[in-house]
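Sample intake sheet
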Amino acid sequence: MKIIFAGTPAFAAHALKALLDKQFEIVAVLTQPDRPSGRGMQLKPSPVKQLALEQGLAVLQPKTLKDTDIQNQLINFKADLMIVAAYGLILPKVVLQIPRLGCWNIHASLLPRWRGAAPIQRAILAGDQQTGITIMQMDAGLDTGDMLFKKESLITTSDTSETLHDKLAVLGANAILEALTLHQENKILAIPQDGALASYASKLSKEESQIDWSKSAQEVALNVRGYNPFPGATSVLNGTPLKIWQASVCDGPAGLSGEVLQGEKNALIVACGVGALSLEIIQKPNAKALPATQFLQGFTVKAGDRFVTR
């Protein structure tokens, strides 16, 4: 089976490596153009491109798949299947039809829940206890195609978007291998999605990461986990913008939303709309993220101070 692989970040690189390890024939790799990165803003290849070049694979980095030139290049590979994982470009209908078996997507949710760009983060923000991987036959809609294979994963109370991403990257690599095996055995079953059960995982924005302390402590804790590592849950205390990287629900006396209930004795406890939150890892601008114990040694906080949004 000849496969074109389309993907960009580390999540996709896991799947590409799994396919290569199992000796699948990758005839070409599509990935996003190199992006400026780091302090020097030098162009940096994607994790998928780095892996593909190490393996001597043909790499294509078009800015769009709408041009006939790139479409003709894809046609010439005579691929049986295109496997897509976090690629980042829309596949026009004509491209979806180029491989003999069409295009399969490795999607990081249990469809039809969390179609869209940020399924991992939205699952945590919503307080979901379970997520997983769906291998999907791509169509012209946004993650609306038939489901071919699913693997489930629990979301633990300590999972952040980063840790859940890493778990699902491994799960996605395993899932695509299992789906391909089922296809080879003529055991794959395409199941249409129930659109009535669909939800949309919109892309994250920096604006939404500002903590609303009028929410319950449980909701704010989910925000801290869901926005870690990007864009980071933020709030302002005594004029200083802070990022909160880890927090947990705790007992505390009643207080105004965002009010510091305790800012000493190695604990920073903040009142929420319902309940209280213990801030455990905190970061000031241009400084390292620190445990509350160390943070309080260099940042004066007292009971009655109040966190606010920008």
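Comment: The chain has a mean pLDDT of 96. The chain has two domains: 2-201, 207-308.
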